[in-house]
Amino acid sequence: MRSMFLAAALAAIATPAGIAQTCDAEPTLVGHRTANGTVRAQYNAVERGEWPNVVLIGEGLVETGLSSRNKTAAWSNLCAGYAGSGEYEAAVSACGEALALRDNAWRALNNRGAAHWLAGNTEAALADFRAADAASTGEDEVTANLAMASCTSAN
User: Fold this and answer.
1) Ordered domains of the chain (ranges, CATH)
2) What is the C-alpha to C-alpha distance for residues 135 and 78, in angstroms, rounded to an integer?
3) For residue range 21-60, what is the model confidence (pLDDT) as tens digits?
4) Are the beta carbons of 27 and 125 closer than 8 angstroms?
């Protein structure tokens, strides 16, 4: 009897359901870099997770006469900065500004998805992650966010 119980317990551990699956708890925010020096500085702040710096640079940057490409990047970075700072509504709005300039800006879609995720709106997040995946060329950050969303919803 004891050996049957032990065998059953070992079988349960060996099956995929018995193996604990780990999920990333936080989505990945992504910066957008351009040749513009100030946008590049904002991007570097995103990469270092310096959210107050990202917001400070971005709020001044989006009000300047940047090209459409640079302004899309600045808004997308500002979205990441707001999301990283916990200002999710502002993040969604900033990403909306980037997407108004370029509707297939995968970084803005990814970052808006991250803001939605962090705010607890998983359906909107998943829709944005899927749209970012369709607009990108298999970017690692988008793939990681899709995996996180799938893993978390499966658990």
Assistant:
1) 25-154 (1.25.40.10)
2) 20
3) 467 679 999 999 999 999 999 999 999 999 999 999 999 9
4) yes
